[in-house]
Amino acid sequence: MADFFHPDRLQKLEDLKASGADPYPAQAAFAPIDGVTATSGPKRELAAALLAQAEERQGETVLIYGRVLGRRGYGKLAFLDVCDQSGRIQACMQKDLVLPAEFEHLKQLNLGDIIAVEGELSKTKVGEPTVFGTRFRILTKALENPPEKFHGLADAELRARRRYVDLFANQEVRDSFFKRSAIIQAMREVFLARAYTEVDTPVLHPIYGGANAKPFSTHHNALDMQLFLRIAPELYLKRLLVGGMERVFEFARVFRNEGLSMRHNPEFTMVEFYEAYSDVYGMMELTEQLVVAAARAAGCEQQDGSLKTIFRDEEFQLSPPFARVTYADVFLEHVGCAATDRVGLPAKMADHGIQVANSSEYAWWKAVNDLFEELVEPHLRGPIFVHDYPAAICPLAKPLASDPTWAGRFEFFLGGMELANAFSELNDPQLQLAKFEEQVVDKDPESPNQVDMDYVRALAYGLPPAGGCGIGVDRLIMVLLGKDTIRDVLLFPHMRPEKDFGGAAASTDEPLVKTGDPS
RNA sequence: GGGGGCAUAACUCAGUCGGUAGAGUAGUUGGCUUUUAACCAAUUUGUCCCAGGUUCAAGUCCUGGUGCCCUCACCA
Question: A243 and A201: one domain?
C-alpha cells in the first residue's frame, strides 16, 4: 500500500477538475444551460420503474442517477450500465445528442463512478429500453475499483467487511436486506393492529438478567459504576406491564459475550413482546401470526397460497396452524422414558455423558433438559411449539396450576433452531425472589450477577397475569430467506478489526494514508 | 478450545519436478455510432499473508505466527 488511492484514478480526477467540472458536486441537478433556469426539469427516476414502464413512457425525457458498473464504448457512442437501488438500466451516450462539453467527460469516467443522465427513454435496435442521454454529469468520482464485473466479489470475508461493495455489486444482496426490513415492518404491523405499543428500554443494565448468557461489561465514568450491555430486555418490559402499559413490544438489539458461529453473532436482534391478561398460549397464537406475516413479507407465498421456505436443503411448510406438543409427550417419544422418571433417567443420562451437577432440583432438571436437547431437539424440524417446560429450569415462568412440576412456557422450533421462547409470566414476587436467589447462589457466570431487587419490588406492586415472548429475528430471517449463515442477514456482522486499518488495534500515531516512501 | 483446509495483481484465478511471477477482468493509450462479460491493437501494476529455517536457489519444502473458511465443542 505505497499509495492508498490509485494514481490512475487521481489523474482522472485532476483531468475532470481541469475541465472545470466539480468531481463531487453538492447538487445532483444539472446546471442551467445558457442562463435558462432548470427548475422545471424531470424528476429523478428509478431504473426498475423505468424498465417496467418502458412501453407507455417511450419518448419521455427522464433523469436517472446511479453507479456505472458496465461500459461498452465506441468512438462517438457509449453504452453505460447505470445501477441504482432498484436495479440496472442502460444509458446510451451519443456524441451528436449530448452537449459536447459533457460528452468529453466520458473520457474521465471510470467504472464505479456515480453519474446523472438526462435524456429520452427509448429502445435500441435490439429492443432494450435505454435512456439516450442529452445531458451527462459525473456526480461522484470513485477512486477505488469496483469488483470484477463477471464474478463480482466472491471472497466471503471481503463481502462482509466491505458490505458497501457487496451491496452495490450484487442486486440479490440488496434484495435480501430490503426483505429483512420488510419482514420486520410486517411484524411491527401485526403488533400495531393488536393495539401494542412500541417502546425503547435501556441497553445499559446495572444488573444483567432475563436470559442466561455472558454479558459485555462496560463502565460509566461519571457514576463510577459497572454496567452491562443487555442480554435481554425482558425485565424492563415487564416493569412496563406493572406500570399499566398493557401491550408492549421492542425490537431489541441484545449483546451476548459468546462465540461466533453460523447462527451466533455477539449482537443480534430479538423482538420481545408482553401482553397483560394473556398467557403462554395466547403468545403461541400471536407468534404463529407473526411468523406467517413475516413469511409473506419474505416472499414465501406460493401460487396455491401456501407458505413455504427452503432452508439448508430442507423444505418447511409455514402454513398455519403449527404443530403443538407438550414437553412431556415429546420427551417420552424420543427418549423412551418419562421426563419425570427419576428411576429410569439416570441410565439414559449416563449413556450420553450427562451428569447431574449437584443435589439441587435445578441441577437435576438441567440434566433432564440436556437429555432433551441431545435426543429431542434434533427431531424438531418445525414449525412446532413445544410447551409446558419443567418449572425448575424456568425462573421467569409461572408454574401450571394443574401441576407445578411444569411451567407455562413454550419454545418454538423451525429449521432445526430454537426461534422463540415464551412464558406465562411469573408474577408472584416471593416465588420470583426465591428463584433469583437460587440463581445467584449457583454462581454460574451466565446467571444474573445479583438479585434484581427493583424488579422484585415492581412485582410486589402487582404484575397482571401476562404472556410474554421473544423471537430471534435474525434466525427467523435466515430461515425465511434460505440463508445458511447469520452473517448473510446482518448488514455488518462482527469481524475482527482489519489489520493496520482502524479498530482499536491500530490506534497508533501512524497516519492512515502513507503519501510517499522515500526508499 | 480441538481437528481439517485456504492465503499469489484492485477483482476472479492459474503457477508442473524447488530454478527467480502468469491469464482474464479492471486501469492506461489508440481505433470503432447499437453493445449486453462488446470487439481489435498496444500497455501498467506484485511485501506470492508475516517471521524464521532447509537449499546454490523457496510462491512451491519445514517450523512458528496471523487472518479467513469448514467441522466438532460451547452457546435458553
Answer: yes
Task: Tell which wins on pLDDT, A190 or A445.
Answer: A190
Across all residues in chain A, what is the average pLDDT? 89
Instruction: State residue A239's pLDDT score.
Output: 97
Protein CB footprint (7 Å) on chain B nucleotides: 1, 10-13, 24-29, 31-39, 47, 66-76
Q: Are residues A214 and A68 in the same domain?
A: no
List the single protein residue with the shortest CA to C1' distance from B46.
Answer: A1
A481 or A154, greater pLDDT? A481
Picking from A329, A266, A336, A222, the residue whose alpha carbon sits closest to that of residue A496 is A266
Cell numbers of A214, please?
A: 455472558
Cα–Cα nearest to A40, from A19, A61, A57 = A61
The predicted structure's pLDDT at residue A443: 63
A43 touches strand B (CB under 7 A): no
Interval A296-327: pLDDT, tens: 999 999 999 999 999 888 899 999 999 999 99
* Best CA proximity match to A228, nearest among A240, A243, A217, A214: A217
Q: Are residues A45 and A105 in the same domain?
A: yes
In the 8-state DSSP scheme, what is residue A322?
A: P
Q: In the 350-409 stretch of chain A, whose C-beta falls under 7 Å of nucleic acid strand B?
A: 393-396
Euclidean distance between CA atoms A63 and A27, whole angstroms: 14
* Residue A486 beta carbon within 7 A of nucleic strand B: no
The cell numbers describing A179, all together, are 426483505
The CATH number that applies at residue A226 is 3.30.930.10
Q: For residues A76 and A94, give the distance between their C-alpha atoms in angstroms, rounded to a whole number.
A: 6
Residue A149 lies in a domain: no
* Distance from C-alpha of A476 to C-alpha of A365, rounded to nearest angstrom: 28
* pLDDT value at A514 more than 60: no
Mean pLDDT of A71-81: 94
Name the CA dihedral angle for A187, A193, A195, A201, rounded to a multiple of 10 degrees. 20
Placement of cell 429431542 in the chain = A376
Task: Report whether A302 contacts A308 (CB < 8 A).
Answer: yes
Range A267-274 average pLDDT: 95
Interface confidence (ipTM) of the complex: 0.89
Tell whether A179 and A111 lie within a shared domain.
Answer: no
